[in-house]
Design brief:
Elements (H helix, E strand, L loop, with lengths): L10 E5 L7 E6 L5 E5 L15
Length: 53
């Protein structure tokens, strides 16, 4: 994960949920920007997630 504003790898997840169910909130330590990115568990290719129900 890299900051979309300054490309720094010095980012940390600050909230599991963002504005959407598939996003998490992150903060960049280099430029102090907050941003949202797709959560890791939603990055899996289709068909690799366990079946629902």
């Amino acid at each position: 994960m890299r900051c979309p504003f300054c490309s720094s790898p010095a980012v940390e997840r600050v909230a599991q949920w963002g504005g959407q169910i598939i996003t998490a909130q992150w903060k960049c330590s280099a430029c102090n920007s907050y941003f949202e990115a797709v959560r890791e568990d939603f990055d899996e290719p289709a068909g690799t997630l366990p079946p629902v129900g």
